[in-house]
Design brief:
- Helix content is 55%, strand content 33%.
- It has two helices and two strands, in the order αββα.
- Strand 1 and strand 2 form a beta hairpin.
């Protein structure tokens, strides 16, 4: 199995993950108030949405890379 086939399989797996999980969240810790030695912080959750077209493009690119990898192996 050559490197092009491995990249194709990884792209297909990543595209399937993007389609399965259409968003991800992360939390930041922000300093809200600081008066002398006293500080107040707040946790804020951010959500990033991933468009489904990104998953389909990754799957398509992975399929193409896998096709090229298999095709070059035959030549």
């Amino acid at each position: 199995m050559n490197s092009t086939s491995i990249v194709g399989i990884l792209l297909i797996a990543l595209g399937a993950a993007v389609l399965g999980y259409d968003h991800y969240s992360y939390t930041t810790h922000d300093q809200v108030l600081k008066i002398g030695p006293i500080t107040a912080t707040a946790d804020e959750t951010h959500t990033v949405s991933l468009p489904p077209i990104l998953g389909w493009l990754l799957i398509g690119g992975g399929a193409y890379a896998l096709f090229l990898g298999v095709r070059s192996k035959k030549d």
